[in-house]
Amino acid sequence: QVQLVESGGGLVQAGGSLRLSCAASGRTASNCGMGWFRQAPGKERFFVAAITWSGGTTYYADSVKGRFTISRDNAKNTVYLQMNSLQPEDTAVYYCAADPSLAFYSNSYYYTRVAQYSYWGQGTQVTVSS
Length: 130
Fold this sequence. Notes:
This protein is mainly beta. It has 1 helix and 11 strands. Strands 2, 4, 5, 6, 9, 10 and 11 form a 7-stranded mixed sheet that branches. A 4-stranded antiparallel sheet has the order 1-3-8-7, with no helix packed on it.
């Protein structure tokens, strides 16, 4: 079992920045590939960014490339999402997700799929005002 707790959401003006954190606990937490997804009201949950268990490879949705950065500190079992140049369309609940099976995959396809992840956090709200 892996438990995930997100923090760092809030209200920010367009052009501003936020850093989300996801603290993982559990026996296999450090071996998991991890991702961030977001879900706006009435919409599906979409991929934002992901990182391999080692932190050596990252993946991003086209909509956030160049603005968001995912990173991890395995000593702290924490994954971060630095979000810069935020826009109103970034407003959503952001979820952290993890799965140990991702350690066997290097193809980005697997990291972008909601169904690939077994463990999810409770979500943190990010609201960007115009």
